[in-house]
Design goal:
This protein is α+β, with helices and mostly antiparallel strands. 44% of the residues lie in helices and 21% in strands. It has a domain at 6-74: Arc Repressor Mutant, subunit A (Orthogonal Bundle), CATH 1.10.10. The chain has eight helices and eight strands; from the N terminus they run H-H-H-H-E-E-H-E-E-H-E-E-H-E-H-E. Strands 3-1-2-8 form a four-stranded antiparallel β-sheet. A four-stranded antiparallel β-sheet has the order 5-6-4-7, sandwiched between helices.
């Protein structure tokens, strides 16, 4: 159905994120630092760190940068002490929005996030007001035309939680968040290369918007993603029509 293609929505979102490469290294370094602080510097014993390092390598981050971030997290090197915080609210047409941040100044961060919500037509809510509308999981998206039966068999055997075929023919493989890398590697070895893959907060349902609402919603998301303390922005809004 025009305007509500899961595949187009995923590609649109990925394209918007790819255009913001300048912020990627900074956010990955912060995530590696916090992951090492929370769970130690050994990726074999710290799945969150392993995932962050895998993303960093995927973005061609130099090895020295990764190692320095781990050392700052474990205290071997001095560095900024980041705190994790999450803000929730509503965007255009009531679409749920969840904003994950790493900050050294929560007072500044909450003010910036609240300002972005209010300036661009959203409303910042209370803790837990929309988080129930998302699931923390890994996902791998395969293009329309992928052999559904073969992928489903391989994915479930590898430990995937679910395999979903969308109306547009794209196929989603859902994984436990910290088993994502192993399942992805197993499927690649079987010949299935995902077009898009990540560990994220997956919306449990989508909020459909009109073309005008999509434009307004994109401005809100862009404003939130441009904030230095923001790591990720999640929304239930379908965003495939606006380029």
């Amino acid at each position: 159905m025009a305007g509500h293609s899961k595949w187009a929505n995923i590609q649109h979102r990925k394209g918007r994120q790819d255009a913001k490469r300048g912020q990627v290294f900074t956010r990955l370094i912060k995530e590696i630092t916090v992951a090492a602080k929370m769970g130690g510097g050994d990726p074999a014993m710290n799945p969150r760190l392993r995932l962050a390092m895998d993303k960093a390598k995927g973005e061609s981050m130099p090895k020295d940068n990764i190692e320095s971030a781990i050392k700052r997290g474990t205290g071997t090197l001095e560095g900024v002490d980041y705190v994790e915080t999450r803000y929730e609210g509503y965007g255009i047409a009531g679409a749920a929005v969840m904003v994950d941040c790493l900050t050294d100044n929560k007072t500044r961060t909450v003010a910036d996030v609240r300002h972005a919500f209010s300036k661009y037509g959203g409303n910042m809510g209370t803790d837990g007001c929309v988080s129930f509308q998302f699931k923390h999981c890994g996902y791998l998206i395969y293009a329309p035309g992928t052999d559904e039966d073969a992928l489903m068999e391989a994915a479930l055997e590898a430990g995937a939680e679910d395999v979903i075929t969308n109306d547009d023919g794209s196929i989603e493989v859902i994984t436990p968040p910290y088993e994502f890398i192993g399942i992805k590697e197993t499927l690649e070895a079987a010949g299935f290369k995902a077009e898009v893959s990540d560990v994220s907060m997956k919306p449990l349902s989508d909020t459909e918007l009109t073309s005008e609402e999509i434009i307004k919603m994109q401005k809100l998301i862009d404003a939130l993603e441009s904030l230095d303390d923001v790591q990720e922005v999640y929304t239930t809004a379908l965003m495939d029509e606006e380029e």
